[in-house]
Amino acid sequence: MSLNKYAIIGFPLGHSMSPFIHRRLFDISGISAEYDMLEIRPEELENKFELLRTYSGFNVTIPHKINIIKMCDNTSGVAKLYSSVNCVKCGDKIIGYNTDAEGFLKTFEHYGVNLFGKVLILGAGGVARTALYECAAKGCRITIAARESSITAAKEIAAEASMKFKGTDISVVLLSELSGEYDIIINATPVGMYPNIDAMPVQSDVINGCGAVFDLIYNPGETKLLKTAKEMGKKAMGGMPMLVWQAAAAHKIWYGADFSCKDINTLIDDSNAYMYKHFRH
C-alpha cells in the first residue's frame, strides 16, 4: 500500500471538484498526500481493483457505488443501510463506507435549518435516496415527486425506505400533479444545473408554499430555484456544503481528521470560487 496516496474513481469524472476539495483538506490537516482522478469504466472495475488496493483510500462515485461493495471485506452500518459505498479505506482489510448521509445532515446544521415535518423530495435517483433515508430516519412525512419516466424508480425507493423505516409516512406523486404546502423542499434532480441555469424543477407557487429549500446542485452555487426561494423570504440552501462535508467525513475515516467549522466554511467559500472560475465556461 502506498502511504498517503488517495484517489476518486468513477466514469466519467469530467469536471470533478473532488481533487480541489480533498487536496485542500490534506493541506488543512498538515498532511502531504497525493490525490488522483481515476476514470474506470464499469467493466474495468474488477481488473483494476488490485491497483486500488495500493492506495491508502479512495472515493467512489457513479457508476461504482454499488458494484464496489462485493470487493470490500466489510462495510460500515450506513453503507449497509444504503447498499451504497462512496468511500473506501484500504489496509489489511478493505472497508467500505458511506459519507453522503453525514454531508446531507451537516448541510442542515451549516444553514441552521431543522430537518422536520413535511418534506418534498424532487427526483428518484441516488441522491434522492440519500435524502429520503435521512428524512425517514428523522421521522419526517415525505412526498417524492418525479416525472412520469421516473415514477417507477420513485415507487421503488419509497418501498425500500418503508421497509427499513417502519411506519414512515411516504407518498409518491407525479411532478405535474404536485400541490400542497411543505416545510422543506429538497431538489435531487439535475434541473437548474449549469449550463441550464434558467430552469426550475417546480413552479413558483410550490416554492411559495414551503419554509425552506435545499437544492443539492452545487453548480451554480445559487440556482434559479434558490434565487426564487430567497426572493420569497424562504431559507435557501445550496449543495456545496454537502459536497465538502461528505469529503471531510472521508478524511476522518482515513486518518482520524478533525476539522473546525471555520475551516470547513472557508473551504466551502473557496470551493464555490474555484468552481465559478474553472467550471463555468
Structure description:
- The chain starts with a strand and ends with a helix.
- It is built from ten helices and twelve strands.
- The protein is globular, with a radius of gyration of 19 Å.
- The protein has helices spanning 18-29, 45-52, 77-82, 100-111, 126-137, 151-164, 204-208, 224-231, 240-255, 261-278, and strands at 5-10, 34-39, 57-60, 74-75, 87-89, 95-97, 118-122, 141-146, 170-174, 182-187, 210-215, 235-237.
- The mean pLDDT is 95.
- Helix 4 (100-111) packs across helix 5 (126-137), helix 4 crosses helix 9 and helix 9 crosses helix 10 (261-278).
- It has a six-stranded mixed sheet. Strands 9-8-7-10-11-12 form a six-stranded parallel sheet, with helices on both faces.
- With 281 residues, it is α/β, with parallel strands linked by helices.
Summarize it.
With 281 residues, the protein is of the alpha/beta class.
**Distance from first to last alpha carbon:** 38 Å
Q: What is the 3D shape?
A: globular
- Strand/helix succession: EHEHEEHEEHEHEHEEHEHEHH
| Backbone CA Rg | 19 Å
Describe the sheet with the most strands: 6 strands, mixed
Number of strands: 12
- Ranges where pLDDT stays below 50 over 5 or more residues in a row are none
Based on secondary structure, the structural category is: alpha/beta
Percent of residues in helices: 25-40%
Mean pLDDT: 95
What is the element layout, followed by pairings?
Layout: E1 5-10, H1 18-29, E2 34-39, H2 45-52, E3 57-60, E4 74-75, H3 77-82, E5 87-89, E6 95-97, H4 100-111, E7 118-122, H5 126-137, E8 141-146, H6 151-164, E9 170-174, E10 182-187, H7 204-208, E11 210-215, H8 224-231, E12 235-237, H9 240-255, H10 261-278
Parallel strand pairs: 1-2, 1-3, 4-6, 7-8, 7-10, 8-9, 10-11, 11-12
Antiparallel strand pairs: 3-5, 5-6
Helix pairs in contact: 1-9, 1-10, 4-5, 4-9, 5-6, 9-10
